[in-house]
Write a structure and sequence with these properties.
The protein is α/β, with parallel strands linked by helices. The protein has 2 domains: 103 residues, 2-Layer Sandwich (Transcription Regulator spoIIAA), CATH 3.30.750; 179 residues, Rossmann fold (3-Layer(aba) Sandwich). Helix 1 packs parallel to helix 2 and helix 4 runs parallel beside helix 5. It is globular. Keywords: Methyltransferase, rRNA processing, S-adenosyl-L-methionine, Transferase. This is Class I SAM-dependent methyltransferase. One of its GO terms (biological process) is methylation. GO terms for molecular function: methyltransferase activity.
């Protein structure tokens, strides 16, 4: 990271914090390759907490310069006026993604807001905090289309889509994910929003061994598919996504909708559109949702893909 790149990041953060966003937002998205020399950096505003993540190693001198810049930022008027109180530096490229608290008292959990809804994040303990900020528009789309619907949320993680669906008036939501700890956090997220948990089912199972359990709660009016690009032993996007798509027609009600997502940079939107046409020709492509403006990308097809389909 050159001194010029570091100065660019510093200036960007000063502007982003003046004023600070009212809700959780990404402040700097270097991974979109729009700022040369900063491709390995992201910065998230977690409403009082600034989380800086490094996705590639820096030399010792570079790392020290980055830390010095961040501590200098914490003395700026923009920082003081923002209400920020904690500063974290996460090294995502290392095993277990260790996080250093440069400023503030360490806490394990932190509650934030997005689109008026509350979510509980993990700070400093896990690779991911518990909410993928680039899917903000996807959650808003689900909230806007969930009224009265029966919803299936596959690869549910901490149930962000489920929270959005219940907030939008969904009649019932089924969340499935192999990680039971993530689903437990999903329950926490629903409780934070005073949701009726009798309307929500949490299935801690391997999807490919649990189609019968999934079908039992159907058919569904809306299905959300947001899998990891790769998860050792459980999911490989190119191999396993088609297996999910071919099950959709039997799980969907007439005129049901699907939100199919991928964050794999090497796979563009055409892959999902063509795979759907091949595996589930009853479903037709409607639109690709826009990504939030705070996630610019010099190669849009490499960014998050959130595609809407409907059953004819």
């Amino acid at each position: 990271m050159t001194p010029d790149a570091l100065a660019t990041l510093h200036q960007h953060l000063l502007i982003a914090l003046d004023p600070a966003p009212e809700e959780t937002r990404r402040l700097f998205h270097g991974r979109g390759r729009c700022w040369p020399g900063l491709e390995q950096v992201t910065v998230d505003w977690l409403q009082g907490v600034l989380l800086v993540a490094l996705f590639k190693p820096l030399g010792d001198a570079e790392l020290q310069a980055l830390q010095a810049m961040l501590l200098d930022l914490s003395q700026s008027p923009a920082w003081q006026q923002s209400g920020a109180h904690s500063l974290l530096l996460q090294q995502r490229y290392l095993p277990e993604s260790p996080t250093q608290w440069l400023l503030g008292e360490p806490v394990e959990h932190w509650d934030i807001c997005e689109h008026g809804l509350k979510y509980r994040l993990d700070l400093g303990r896990k690779q991911n905090t518990g909410l993928f900020l680039d899917m903000r528009y996807g959650r808003q789309w689900v909230q806007a289309h969930a009224a009265g619907k029966r919803v299936l949320n596959l690869f549910a993680y901490t149930c962000g889509f489920s929270v959005a669906a219940l907030a939008g008036g969904a009649a019932h939501v089924v969340n499935l994910d192999m990680a039971k700890a993530a689903l437990s956090r999903g329950r926490d997220n629903h409780r934070l929003n005073q949701h009726d948990l009798s309307q929500v089912v949490f299935l801690g199972h391997d999807l490919f061994k649990s189609w019968g359990k999934v079908a039992k709660y159907g058919p569904y009016d809306l299905i959300i598919i947001d899998p990891p690009s790769f998860q050792r032993g459980s999911f490989v996007l190119s191999k396993d996504y088609p297996k999910v798509l071919r099950r959709l027609p039997e799980l969907l009600n007439a005129h049901g909708k699907v939100l199919a997502c991928s964050n794999e940079p090497e796979i563009g939107p055409d892959y999902l559109i063509q795979a759907m046409a091949s595996e589930a020709p009853e479903l037709r492509f409607d639109e690709r949702l826009s990504n939030p403006p705070e996630f610019p990308d010099s190669q849009p097809d490499s960014a998050l893909k959130a595609l809407v389909f409907h059953k004819t």
